[in-house]
C-alpha cells in the first residue's frame, strides 16, 4: 500500500518538475520566443517555478487529473482536459499558438508517460 503511494507521489512530482522545466525553458526556445525580458505568458518573472503563474497551476491540476484518469483506466477522458483547456485559452492561443500547443503536448505527454509507468509499477508491487 505505502509503496504504491510513494510510487504515485514520486512520479507525479517528477512529472510536474520535468514538464515545468521543459515548458518554461524549452518551449520558448523552440518557438523562438520574442517576449519582453524573457518573461513567459501569464508570468511576471522568468523563474522556472513561478508559483504565482496561472500557467503553473493549470499545468499542475492538468497533470493531477491525467494521473487520476490513467489510474482509473479512463484514457479517453484526457481528451476532455485538452479540449477544455484549448476552449478556455482560445484568445491566448491565437496570440501565441506554438507556445500553447507545444506546452500542452509536452505536459500531457509527460503526464501520460509517467502515470502509465506508475500504473505498471503499482501493479507489479
- Helical/strand content category: mainly alpha
Largest sheet: none
Unreliable stretches, pLDDT < 50, 5 or more residues? none
- How many domains make up the 3D coordinates? 1
| Helix and strand run | HHHHH
Distance between the termini: 9 Å
Please, could you describe this protein's structure?
This protein is an all-alpha fold. It has one domain. The chain has helices at residues 2-31, 54-72, 77-88, 90-95, 97-124. Helix 2 packs parallel to helix 5. The longest helix has 30 residues, at 2-31. The radius of gyration is 15 Å and the shape is globular. It starts with a helix and ends with a helix. The relative contact order is 0.18. The model has no long low-confidence stretch (mean pLDDT 83).
What are the defining features of this structure?
125 residues
Ordered list of secondary-structure elements with their pairings:
Layout lengths: L1 H30 L22 H19 L4 H12 L1 H6 L1 H28 L1
At a glance:
It contains five helices and no strands. It has one domain. The chain is mainly alpha-helical and 125 residues long.
Amino acid at each position: 500500500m505505502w509503496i504504491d503511494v510513494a510510487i504515485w507521489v514520486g512520479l507525479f512530482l517528477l512529472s510536474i518538475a520535468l514538464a515545468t522545466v521543459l515548458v518554461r525553458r524549452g518551449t520558448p526556445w523552440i518557438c523562438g520566443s520574442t517576449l519582453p525580458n524573457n518573461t513567459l505568458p501569464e508570468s511576471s518573472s522568468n523563474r522556472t517555478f513561478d508559483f504565482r503563474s496561472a500557467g503553473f497551476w493549470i499545468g499542475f491540476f492538468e497533470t493531477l487529473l491525467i494521473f487520476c484518469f490513467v489510474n482509473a483506466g479512463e484514457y479517453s477522458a484526457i481528451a476532455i482536459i485538452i479540449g477544455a483547456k484549448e476552449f478556455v485559452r482560445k484568445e491566448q492561443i491565437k496570440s501565441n499558438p506554438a507556445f500553447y500547443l507545444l506546452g500542452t503536448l509536452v505536459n500531457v505527454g509527460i503526464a501520460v508517460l509517467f502515470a502509465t509507468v506508475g500504473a505498471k509499477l503499482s501493479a507489479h508491487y
